[in-house]
Amino acid sequence: SRERGEAAAFDLRQESGNNEVIFMALDLASLASVRAFATAFLSSEPRLDILIHNAGISSCGRTREAFNLLLRVNHIGPFLLTHLLLPCLKACAPSRVVVVASAAHCRGRLDFKRLDRPVVGWRQELRAYADTKLANVLFARELANQLEGTGITCYAAHPGPVNSELFLRHVPGWLRPLLRPLAWLVLRAPKGGAQTPLYCALQEGIEPLSGRYFANCHVEEVPPAARDDRAAHRLWEASKRLAGLGPGEDAEPDEDSQSEDSGALSSLSTPHPEEPTVSQPYPSPQSSPDLSKVTHRIQAKVEPETQLS
């Protein structure tokens, strides 16, 4: 929510002393919102050095859509956002893209004939979640191949099982008091879950490992389905269609990319997109660091995604 996003940005400003931290609202379930966000970001921000795709869902809740909501939020939305922000990433190279994945990708299986099918019931949600995590790993792999030589490197990062509100959000209310102590004992705190994504975003010398999957701050091997280059490229092409990307948007989005492609699947259009909300940096009574060369911006996500194992 905006309230929690603004609160997180405020806390970061207070703790870091960096008054350039802002919050921008983005609804990954809406392709129109993704495009509006990208337009607002590119018009207001001169730099993009690190893009971390951390937002995600593990359940559709009570929402019933004509498309695969889990795939839309966990993969298609981040896929489209990456494409729209590529010009800024390339201009700021060396830069990085980190896709927060999960060990659940090992259970994933992509059916390209029914990739965007609606998800109904908790059993389908569990399967669809694993499928989207496999899509995350393949996306990072193909993105690294597509951007080889541009100075942009890409990584899939598994934060581990994280104890956050996302974990309890889909648990029946009567069960939450029983699970909270157990979650505190066996799951990682959000700070611990952030370590591997931060490692992929900041660690020097891992550029040759672009496209690989990281867990516990080191490279881990993935099953054959997650290192299938043909499947990764096929997913790339399918994702372009599902995201409504036109022929000229594959590499460098142009001005025409701000309109939805009517030739794409009509069920993916979301009318009346909500304009992104941008919080303003607060003036500081203290002297702030020199930001004349590098402008720090953080798209605040309150908690790391809970990974289902």
Automatic annotation (TrEMBL):
InterPro entries named among the record's database cross-references: NAD(P)-bd_dom_sf, SDR_fam
Signal peptide region: none
Biased composition (Polar residues): 260-270
Keywords recorded for this protein, A-Z: Oxidoreductase
Domain of life: Eukaryota
Chain intervals with Acidic residues compositional bias: 249-259
Basic and acidic residues: bias regions: 300-309
Region (Disordered): 242-309
GO molecular function: oxidoreductase activity
Bias type Low complexity, positions: 279-289
One Pfam family per UniProt: adh_short_C2
Family assignment from sequence similarity: Belongs to the short-chain dehydrogenases/reductases (SDR) family.
Name used for this protein in its record: Dehydrogenase/reductase 13
Species per Swiss-Prot/TrEMBL record: Colobus angolensis palliatus (Peters' Angolan colobus)
